[in-house]
Write a structure and sequence with these properties.
mainly beta, about 130 residues, three-stranded antiparallel sheet, single chain, Metal Binding Protein, Guanine Nucleotide Exchange Factor, Chain A, binds zinc ion, globular
């Protein structure tokens, strides 16, 4: 069972299934939608997924034919994408609240990746906020 919620907490969902693989997607539409270097996603079967609150707060955007990105209209959190023809729901990992012990399996669409982000380039990790080196 995987539970998730948006930033403001109005929208919540539940997915009753085995975990799918965790994938970092670097495609341009994910980068734009999340305003981030990549979006971390977990594909699951649509039958396992249900909204548990705030469905009336959802808005969606069809970023490519047949692919709808659902987000909270109140706080802007990207919660899932649905690819109807492929029969897939993509959970957006940043909004998952459940403990997940799996680790990411792959970076995809590196051909589309932000030029300023290289997964092979190790950088400092700080426990709190940014501090100049
Ligand atoms: Zn929200
Ligand atoms: Zn993507």
């Amino acid at each position: 069972m995987i539970n998730g919620s948006c930033l403001c907490g109005l929208v919540t969902y539940q997915a009753d299934c085995d975990n799918g693989p965790i994938i970092h997607c670097h495609c341009q539409t994910c980068r734009k939608a999340h305003s981030a270097a990549f979006a971390s996603v977990m594909p699951i079967a649509p039958a396992a997924f249900k909204w548990t609150s705030g469905e009336d707060q959802l808005n969606s955007f069809e970023s490519s034919p047949g692919k709808n990105r659902y987000f909270c209209a109140n706080c802007g959190s990207q919660l899932i994408a649905e690819r109807r023809e492929a029969k897939l729901i993509l959970l957006r990992m940043g909004c998952v609240d459940s403990e997940i012990s799996d680790r990411p399996d792959a970076h995809i669409w590196r051909s589309d990746g932000a030029p300023w982000y290289d997964p092979d380039h190790e950088i400092r990790q700080l426990a709190g906020t940014y501090a100049p080196a």
